[in-house]
Amino acid sequence: MKKNRPLACLLTAIAFVVILTNSCKKEEENKTLPILTTASVSNITQFTAMCGGNVSSDGNSKISACGVCWSMNPTPTINDNKTIDSFGVGHFSSLISGLMLNTTYYVRAYALNSGGTAYGNEVTFVTLPTVTTTAVTGITQTTATSGGNV
Does residue 60 or residue 144 have the better pLDDT? Predict the structure, then answer.
C-alpha cells in the first residue's frame, strides 16, 4: 500500500492540472470582443466635433476602456488619435479636438476588453472652413454690395 501512495499523489496532481487547464480554457472561450456602434458626429466646428458610441455587449469580459478614434485616413484604430471616455456598457460621448479646418475625418467608436479591441461602424465628417466677409459697400435704398472668402 505504501508503494502506491506516490503514484496516487502523482495521479491526483495530474488530474488537478487537467481540471484547472480545462477550466481556464472554458473561461477564455467565453470571452469575446465587445459589440458596439459609433454615434453620428455633431457640433462640428473648424477644430472640434462631438461623437461617441454605444457598447451593447462587453463580450463576457470587463471593458477596460472605450472612446472614439479618428484619422484623416479610412479605418482609424486606437494607434491613431483617440479619446478615453468610459469603462463599461452603455452610451458614451466624446469630444474630438485638435482638428484641422476644412478637412475630412474618419471616426470609429472602440472598446477594449481582455478579448481584444472591437470597433464600431466608421463615420466620416468634414470640419468647417474659415469664412471671411468684406465690408458692405455701394449701399442704396434697394441694393448693397458685399463679398467674402471661403
Answer: 60
Cβ contacts of 77-82, under 8 Å, gap ≥ 24 = 77/110, 77/117, 77/119, 78/110, 78/112, 78/117, 82/110
Number of H helices, E strands in the chain: 1, 9
- Cβ atoms 70, 78 nearer than 8 A: no
Q: Please, what's the b/e burial string for 112-137 (b: 16 or more CB within 10 A of its CB; e: otherwise)?
A: bbebebbbbeebebebbeeeeeeeee
- Residue 130 has a pLDDT of 83
Half-sphere exposure of 48 (CA within 13 A, CB side): 6
Q: What is the pLDDT of residue 142?
A: 72
| Spatial CB neighbours of 6, under 8 Å, sequence gap ≥ 6 | none
Identify the residue with better confidence: 18 or 56. Answer: 56
In the predicted structure, residue 20 carries a pLDDT above the cut 50: no
d(CA 32, CA 114): 8
Per DSSP, helices labelled H in 31-129 are none
Task: Measure the CA angle with vertex 108, ends 52 and 43; round to 5°.
Answer: 45
**pTM of the complete model:** 0.71
